[in-house]
Amino acid sequence: MSDKPVSEMSFEEAMAALEAVVTQLERGEVALEQSIALYERGAALKAHCAAKLAEAEARVELIRAAEGRAVGTEPFPGEGERAAATPARTGRATPRRAADGDDDIPF
Known about the structure:
- The protein is mostly helical.
- The chain has a domain at 1-70: Orthogonal Bundle (Helix Hairpins), CATH 1.10.287.
- It is built from three helices and no strands.
- It has helices at residues 11-27, 32-66, 79-85.
- The longest helix has 35 residues, at 32-66.
């Protein structure tokens, strides 16, 4: 585990550290106290990555606004047609797909 404070890590460093934490936890070869410490570090790394992504998104929004382009989220080209073809919700919970990105992170 790196001694570098999470707050000083770049997004890429934090993601690499988070992947290492997840790998260690998945192996299950660490003592309980170390597992708890790893979990805490993983939670801090995840929060740091989320904050870095939010900062990046805000910067992109500023760039788009400065260019006179619409800000906020927009569907990808063709998303509108796909959404219209999607059946109505039934009120049942839908399982998340692996493509959502968080499924393999235990936080």
